[in-house]
Design a protein that fits this description.
This protein has about 270 residues and is an alpha+beta fold. The protein has helices at about 40-50, 115-120, 140-145, 165-170, 175-185, 195-200, 215-220, 225-240, 240-250, 265, and strands spanning about 1-5, 5-15, 25-35, 70-75, 75-80, 95-100, 105, 110. Strands 1, 2, 3, 4, 5 and 6 form a six-stranded mixed sheet that branches. It has a two-stranded antiparallel ribbon with strand order 7-8. It is elongated, with a radius of gyration of 22 Å.
């Protein structure tokens, strides 16, 4: 970082690549003012609007909710919309931007997430409700909500997926993002297909393909723990018959504000 008058300037290194015209990726450097409060995404907008309109990246909400802007910053996956520029300078005072690893590059920082979304749909991430839906509402206990470990906060940004060393080796693994969504549904007392979901996750591309490297935890911008979710799923796969029986019993009382009795011990498997 250098000083230009009273406002410091920062060098942004962007890995550029357009597969239609480039034989291989190359680096291009830009200089921007590091004004107070400027994010990395703000810097990219400034570069595109004032220096090179061909620089390509994704963004949408700008509030760390949609996950569109995930990229690799100085070797770490993160959301660039809420990443302050000054906080991510390397030892040389630069910020280095690459596309998310292990995904085909469409152009510059934009990657093809087709496989990512196919693996997500593979676990059927939607709720499969029981036949006896309560007339007013489902009654879910605080303990059942806590057991979900905020998995519903996942924004599908791809940061965990593209930091996974197993994904780097094989696309057969459905990935931490899909398994976290599967965990959300398996642990949801309103879902009526836990055994079917767990049997599906017992396949070669499911929970046992994870090598427990923990990269997904470090990469998650929402502070979630896909590894713990996968460990819980592994334990539930083994006792899926008992888990399904407990779920059936629980669903007989979904319209009643009572505490969980039969299923609670099974939810502690990931602790």
């Amino acid at each position: 970082m250098t000083t230009n008058g009273s406002v410091p300037t920062v060098t942004i290194r962007i890995q550029r690549f357009n597969p239609d015209v480039d034989k291989k990726p190359y680096w291009q450097e830009f200089t921007v003012k590091a004004t107070q409060g400027k994010t990395i995404l703000d810097a990219l907008h400034e570069i595109k609007e004032e220096q090179d309109g061909s620089v390509t990246f994704r963004r949408s909400c700008r509030h760390a909710i949609c996950g569109s802007c995930a990229a690799n910053v100085n070797g770490r996956n993160m959301l660039i919309c809420d990443a302050p520029l000054r906080d991510h300078l390397d030892r040389k005072g630069r910020v280095t931007l690459r596309p998310l690893p292990y995904l085909p590059v469409i152009k510059d920082l934009v990657v093809d997430r087709t496989t990512f979304w196919e693996q997500y749909l593979r676990v059927r991430p939607w709720l499969i409700p029981p036949d006896n839906i309560p007339e007013k509402e489902f009654r879910v206990s605080p303990e059942e909500v806590a057991a979900l470990r905020n998995a519903e906060r996942c924004i599908m940004c791809g940061a965990c997926y593209s930091s996974c060393q197993v994904i780097a080796l094989t696309k057969e693994y459905i990935g931490p993002h899909a398994l976290l969504k599967a965990f959300l549904r398996v642990l949801d007392p309103r879902d009526s297909a836990p055994r079917e979901r767990l049997e599906d996750l017992d396949r070669g591309d499911g929970v046992y393909r994870c090598h427990t490297i923990f990269n997904c935890i470090d990469a998650c911008p929402k502070g979630l723990n896909p590894t713990a979710a996968i460990e819980t799923l592994r334990k539930l796969v083994i006792k899926r018959v008992a888990f399904e029986e407990a779920r059936r019993e629980r669903q007989r009382r979904l319209d009643q504000p009572i505490e969980v009795v039969g299923e609670a011990p099974l939810l502690s498997g990931g602790e």
